[in-house]
Amino acid sequence: MQGERDQAPYLGPGQSLTTAFLRSLTQGLGSTIAPEILPENVLVRTPDLVVWWSNAGRRVMFFEGGSKDASALNGHLYPQPPLVFKVYQRELFVRALERNIRPSADTPLKTAPYWNTEGPRGLVCAGTMRIPQEMRADNISAWESAFFSSSFTHPSGAVRLTSHPQGFAGLWLSLADREEPFPTEFLTDARQTLRQFVDTTQEQ
């Protein structure tokens, strides 16, 4: 027995992997995804990622933070630019679009013009957001509602959120309760394409 324990380990003959084994392995790694009927605005779907775009529209927005800007902006109805949202590992990211059409992989993205949103990656500070319990393609509207129902409280990072001459507060004050479309000419360049926005999940 002592001699056998002293022997160097060695590999035995190989065996072919079965389909059943591979299926069991991927399930154990959490790499399964239930079949879903994807809404037409979904751009990418994997087991831990969903990316979609949202048409330009109008939303009530809430602002807090104790500043005069927040008080003046709070509770009004605002036009919104077309947006691209990403949920990855229960974190929300958002970018804006210049044109109100479905983006392609090489579409340049714009910085989302919102407080609580980090410029370099578009990561949203959850703050008062009521994050949905599940990440599914059929509940993306719940993520959008959570984003806009939360309170925008502060700028996040040093990236310019807008090129409007009067800055962030001036932009949104000019749009409060107006019916005209969001002026996308005041969006700043995110220096990122849709493909790069999706691929940055590998760097987080």
Description:
- With 204 residues, the chain is α+β, with helices and mostly antiparallel strands.
- The protein has one domain (40-203).
- Helices cover 23% and strands 23% of the residues.
- It contains six helices and nine strands, in the order ααβββαββββαβαβα.
- It has helices at 2-6, 19-28, 68-73, 140-149, 167-175, 194-199, and strands at residues 42-46, 49-54, 57-63, 76-80, 83-88, 91-96, 108-111, 151-152, 189-193.
- It has a six-stranded antiparallel sheet with strand order 1-2-5-6-7-9. A three-stranded mixed sheet has the order 4-3-8.
- The longest helix has 10 residues, at 19-28.
- The chain starts with a helix and ends in a 5-residue tail after the last helix.
- The relative contact order is 0.18.
Secondary structure blueprint with pairings:
Layout: H1 2-6, H2 19-28, E1 42-46, E2 49-54, E3 57-63, H3 68-73, E4 76-80, E5 83-88, E6 91-96, E7 108-111, H4 140-149, E8 151-152, H5 167-175, E9 189-193, H6 194-199
Parallel strand pairs: 3-8
Antiparallel strand pairs: 1-2, 2-5, 3-4, 5-6, 6-7, 7-9
Query: Any idea what the radius of gyration is?
Result: 23 Å
In which range does the helix fraction lie? 10-25%
The total number of structural domains is 1
**Low-confidence runs (pLDDT<50, min 5 residues)?**
none
The rounded distance between the terminal residues' Cα atoms is: 50 Å
- The number of helical segments is 6
